[in-house]
Specification:
Layout: H1 26-35, H2 41-52, H3 66-76, E1 81-89, E2 94-101, E3 106-113, E4 118-121, E5 125-127, H4 136-140, E6 142-145, H5 148-163, E7 176-179, H6 189-200, E8 214-218, H7 222-229, E9 236-240, H8 246-252, H9 261-275, E10 279-285, H10 293-307, E11 311-317, H11 331-343, E12 347-350, H12 364-369
Parallel strand pairs: 4-7, 7-8, 8-9, 9-10, 10-11, 11-12
Antiparallel strand pairs: 1-2, 2-3, 3-4, 5-6
GO cellular component, one term: cytoplasm
Organism: Speluncibacter jeojiensis
Active site: 108 (proton acceptor), 362 (s-methylcysteine intermediate)
């Protein structure tokens, strides 16, 4: 298996869209409006429209003089994402959106409404360079990183959809965001961290979601996990482990050739200690591949030793892609796997699976469109 994986956490800005308000922090917004010859208070005004009222089109910003709207729009609100199509299931409470960026790049997000919350799964890259063989996105390769604005605008659009009652159940509020869509978030490190700040900072600096309601997922870029811990963001870390042994993980998650299981768990422990938050371990259960009872025992033992009570395992029934050799483990095997992990003193649950009939696995819809 090739180990030709990225050596850096942030690729060049190749193919990125023009600067957008959501790319900028408070100081950057003030500088940007001053470059336009506008008074500094306009920066706060524009941010309140975008983050507070969820308006992305200056033509709809009624407190902005009409004569300024076109100029502001061109400079700070370039079109980022255009919906190509929406498909829904679960009686309309799960909606997957295929977006097209300005350069034609395709990406996906999934909005899921539950009785007690609304969760958005967002993409941080178009495609993915991690090459995990059971993942549709990984098999398609990496097109490019998404900009901070492109990441944040997925969240703004979903927040507006919830506010406007576009999903069954009437008007509501977006409560949770998970970076579990297309891409490896920590391979687009700086823009993802900036996006997390925009998502969690209160208006006018951001969308005001609780930090505890944001989850950043990674396949295990150990140095970046430690770097993220030092940001003190307070978000949940999810590690896509998928198997506790290096021999299999070298194949399932090729980045393991660089940072093996022990290094990933050491980094996860560092994150847990710095944040005080439990780390989530993601485990896609694949029939006859990683679902053996001895692997459940090994997983529980390693996690209990490395993280103690600061860990929770999410067992994910695999959502197979069309034509794939991979399939989900049978339910009795799944139940026995969970039982054995719990017997080792590690909390373990099976994730609620949604969207199987709408190609909700990462990358499936974009691959179909392409």
């Amino acid at each position: 298996m090739s180990t030709s994986l990225p050596l850096v956490f942030d690729a060049p800005r190749r193919g990125m869209p023009p600067r957008h308000l959501a790319d900028l922090d408070a100081a950057g917004r003030k500088e940007a409006v001053q470059e336009l010859g506008l008074p500094a208070f306009r920066a706060d005004q524009l941010a309140r429209q975008y983050y507070g009222r969820l308006v992305a089109d200056p033509q709809q910003m009624t407190d902005l003089p009409a004569a300024l709207r076109e100029q502001v729009g061109q400079a700070l609100f370039p079109p980022l994402l255009t919906p190509v199509r929406d498909i829904a299931c679960d009686d309309g409470t799960t909606r997957k959106t295929l977006w097209r960026a300005g350069d034609g790049t395709l990406l996906e997000s999934v909005l899921m409404r539950y009785t007690d919350r609304a969760t958005l799964c967002i993409s941080s890259q178009a495609g993915c360079g991690m090459a995990c063989p059971f993942c549709a996105t990984g098999q398609g390769g990496l097109q490019r990183n998404l900009s901070t604005g492109e990441i944040v605008d997925q969240v703004r659009a979903a927040a507006a959809a919830m506010r406007d009652g576009e999903l069954p159940g009437g008007p509501g509020r977006l409560s949770n965001v998970v970076f579990m869509g297309m891409g490896e978030p920590l391979a687009n490190y700086k823009r993802v961290v900036a996006a997390v700040r925009r998502i969690t900072d209160p208006a006018p600096n951001g969308l005001g979601l609780s930090r505890r309601s944001v989850t950043v997922s990674t396949v295990g870029l150990a140095p970046a996990i430690r770097r993220l811990a030092d940001e003190d963001l307070g978000v949940t870390l999810a590690v896509s482990l998928h198997t506790p042994d290096d021999e299999l993980r070298d194949t399932l998650v090729p980045v393991n050739n660089r940072w093996p299981v022990s290094e990933v768990l050491d980094a996860a422990r560092y994150y847990a200690d710095r944040s005080g938050r439990r780390v989530s371990i993601e485990y896609a259960l694949i029939r006859d591949v990683n679902d053996q009872p001895w692997r459940a025992d090994m997983l529980g033992k390693k996690l209990h030793k490395a993280l103690g009570p600061l860990v929770h395992v999410n067992v994910i029934p695999l959502n197979p892609t069309p034509g794939s050799e991979w399939d989900a483990a049978p339910k009795p095997v799944e139940r026995e796997f969970v039982r054995r992990v719990e017997a080792a003193g590690v909390a373990c649950t099976v994730r609620d699976t949604r969207g199987r009939e709408i190609a909700a696995a990462c990358g499936q819809l974009a691959a179909e469109e392409a």
